[in-house]
Write a structure and sequence with these properties.
The chain is α/β, with parallel strands linked by helices. The protein contains nine helices and eleven strands. Strands 3-2-1-4-5 form a five-stranded parallel beta sheet, with helices on both faces. A hairpin with a 4-residue loop joins strand 7 and strand 8.
Length: 239
């Protein structure tokens, strides 16, 4: 089986579970750290010709991370493409199982079962807080409706103030974010690293939690430790 992954979190999941199956991945696929495969540019601009030259049996992608025209071009080249859709934690487990099976796994990996157990055993939060969750700057963009990261936070007791917004990643000016009066501003370090005047300094008087973006947005082996690590960072910010 020869697989190309266009999604960093799926790259990690496949590489950890099925060593040697991956033959290509994006430039942004940084996990595992020792991954040595052909790089095929980014998630939004994959090199279709280079991917085709690798003669993969399958390309794994995501409806949010990757662009439909690129995936159509791969299909036009005769390559099978599996597109995932992950907007909740339970969907992550279902889609990971589907991807790994398609890549040749004969059974569910232990890490996936362990992650699902961790999330199923998560106690109900003792308190609930509200948050805005910026994901980009210039312009300011935040988590809106129907996102995996929003579901992760909700299960940890943090309700996204823009969860009912008609857009999934709305552009909200900074004054409006401050006027929303959240209990917390959650600042993941990817896809944009919020530092200096773009980070906590932009939200005077509001507690800010600096979050590991991999824990918040990746669905893979990191899922099992995400509740503990994210929960600790959120709790520390809200003290």
């Amino acid at each position: 089986m020869r697989v190309v992954s266009l999604v960093p979190s799926l790259t990690e999941a496949v590489a950890v579970t099925l060593p040697g199956v991956l033959v290509g991945a994006t430039d942004w696929c940084a996990r595992p750290a020792d991954l040595t495969v052909t790089r095929v540019r980014g998630t939004k601009n994959p090199d279709v010709a280079r991917i085709a030259a690798l003669a993969p049996d399958l390309v794994v992608a995501n409806e949010e991370e990757n662009r439909a025209p690129d995936l159509d071009a791969l299909r036009g080249a005769g390559i099978e493409v599996l597109v995932t859709r992950v907007r909740t934690v339970p969907q992550a487990f279902t889609e990971l199982d589907r991807v790994l099976t398609a890549c040749g796994a004969r059974s569910r990996p232990r890490w996936l079962d362990e992650a699902e157990t961790v999330w199923a055993a998560l106690p109900a939060p003792e308190r609930r807080s509200t948050a805005v969750v910026p994901v980009w700057r210039r312009p300011w963009m935040v988590l809106g409706r129907d996102t995996f990261a929003g579901d992760v936070l909700a299960r940890l007791g943090v309700d996204n103030l823009y969860a009912d917004h008609p857009e999934r990643y709305p552009r909200i000016p900074l004054p409006a974010l401050l006027a929303a009066r959240p209990d917390l501003v959650a600042l993941p370090d990817e896809p944009y690293r919020f530092t200096g005047e773009d980070g906590p300094e932009a939200f005077p008087g509001v507690p800010c939690a600096l979050l590991d973006g991999r824990q918040l947005t990746w669905y893979g082996p990191s899922l099992s430790e995400a509740p503990r690590r994210l929960g600790a960072a959120l709790a520390a910010a809200l003290r």
